[in-house]
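Q: Could you fold this chain for me?
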Amino acid sequence: MIPRFTETAPWEAGFSAIYDAEIAPELGEVEAERQALRRTRNRRIAASVAIGLAAFVFAVAAIPPGDGRVIAFGFVPALTAFAIVASHFLGQAAYSDRLRNLVMPRAARLYGLAYDREAKGAPDVEPFERLGLLPKGELTLSDSVAGRHRDLDVALVEARVRRRGGKGKRVLFRGLLLRVSTETPAPTPIVIAPEHGGPLNALAAAFGRYGGGGLRRVETGLPTFERLFELRAGDPDAARAWLPASLLHGLVALAAEEARWKGEPAVTAAFQGEAFYLAIRRNAPFLEPGALGESVSGLEPHLHALLADLSLPQRLVDRLVGASADVDAA
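A: Sure. Below is the predicted structure, expressed as structure tokens.
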């Protein structure tokens, strides 16, 4: 069954027409491809199991007792398991790519953004690293969108940072990076970091984790904001006078949506020069269409999540310029 799409949030206005005209007509073909991929996956898994069992029986019959048999008994099941996992993920990747190619360019167009799977429109990550929003390590970028809103440049990209450790590569960051140009340069470096409590924040500041050090705490007078974040700046008075309260309210709302990555605070942000930088930790990519076993009839919730992501640059720009129509209480 082809799902309908019902607009439920202000930022989704206009997408149902795009969906009905350009996406829904393709979903029957996508579903047929999904089912074919699933059948292929199941055949490969069945073949892997059959070959693995045959190899195991052969090892029992042909290899005499001893170290060789022990090695074979370990190697055959491991190779079989690898083949099963590889078959599953190859089918899943093909299905995910098919849906991304169908949905992402059209959803991005709603917000005047250009989509690129290879992240050619990604923002420069060096400021994110320098400001402490992104750890350094082996960086992978994908699925970028870029464009302009209210004459300000915006760029959003999915990022993952890994670092090799004693047990292989460890994921240090997975999520979204956003850069927005500002109408006027920030009068001083400003960092908005998660509130971990006075001593821990002071320690992070002392070691220059955010902004390279030398930043002082800024009292915003917004209790809800300060329960979630600590604002630091080189010149607290200049930062307090320059920052729009609507943006701080918006970060509170965003943090409430995003505080789900292993219980860690998910949102960090900074201003430097003529740019605003935002990092959001995530445990899922831009568009997660579900498992290969899930029909396209379950697509709608994933589309709502995608539109919330893609509209983020527009909504934050509106707050930066004081034009937001949905200012949250703080």
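A (continued): The chain has two domains: 10-110, 114-320.
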